[in-house]
Design goal:
By secondary structure, this protein is an all-alpha fold. It has one domain: Hypothetical protein, domain 2 (Endonuclease III, domain 1, Orthogonal Bundle), CATH 1.10.340.30. 61% of the residues lie in helices and 0% in strands. Helix 1 packs across helix 11. Its cofactor is [4Fe-4S] cluster. InterPro entries: DNA_glycosylase, Endonuclease-III-like_CS2, Endonuclease3_FeS-loop_motif, Endouclease-III_FeS-bd_BS, HhH-GPD_domain, HhH_base_excis_C, HhH_motif, Nth.
């Protein structure tokens, strides 16, 4: 996909989802970090249900260390991989207290040193909590980027991130990340994407292929 076509596609997605944003509920960088950590292999909706009570019980890093691991595990039991995530949360809180005075660090390389925090989580935190442009590649961003032909089907997550950073203006990285997530979550879904009503279908090789196959199937059943 060339630059001019990508511009048209991004502008169309912007029109479709003008209110795209981070859907994880949080009040500060610390809560956002915990929420994103919990969201791995879990929906934002489920995370928000859990953090609705979790963030009232645990306000600061020390609060997570004041309870036994088993109690924290029970508090996040509805989250996938809750045992591993509970252990990482306590390790993260200990490191944040010991190394950063109880505050979430602002630099990407510092964030990725925290237990349970990978590149994607760090990108979400720096962009949403500290207004540093970043593109966090989750399953939706990766799927949409590959379906549209912005990236190759066999590109790694890091390769997808680098290509998007190269092709999208830096001051649009964060909002583009949110818009691609909304587009993938609510329109270009993993199963049953809404190709038949997609305004950018003409620019989507996979979408056109899906529609062609659907038309052929319908004609064969007549």
């Amino acid at each position: 996909m060339n630059a001019a076509t990508l511009r048209l596609v991004l502008d169309q997605i912007a029109e479709m989802f003008p209110d795209a944003r981070c859907e994880l509920n949080h009040r500060n960088p610390f809560e956002l970090t915990i929420a994103v950590l919990l969201s791995a292999q879990c929906t934002d909706e489920t995370v928000n249900k859990v953090t609705a009570t979790l963030f009232d019980k645990y306000r600061e890093p020390q609060d997570y260390l004041n309870v036994p691991l088993e109690e924290l595990e029970n508090d996040i039991r509805r989250i996938g991989l809750f045992r591993n995530k509970a252990a990482n949360i306590q390790k993260l809180c200990r490191l944040v207290i010991d190394k950063y005075g109880g505050e979430i660090p602002r630099k990407h390389e510092q964030l990725t040193e925290l237990p349970g925090v990978g590149r994607k989580t760090a990108n979400v935190v720096v962009s949403n909590a500290f207004d540093v442009p970043a593109i966090a590649v989750d399953t939706h961003v990766e799927r949409v980027s590959k379906r549209l032909g912005v990236c190759k089907p066999d590109d790694s997550v890091l390769e997808v991130e680098k290509k998007l950073m190269k092709k999208v203006p830096r001051d649009e990285w964060t909002i583009t990340h949110h818009r691609l997530i909304f587009f993938g979550r609510y329109h270009c879904k993993a199963q049953n994407p809404r190709c038949e009503v997609c305004p950018i279908i003409e620019h989507c090789k996979e979408g056109k292929s899906r529609m062609k196959a659907a038309l052929k199937k319908r004609s064969n059943t007549k």
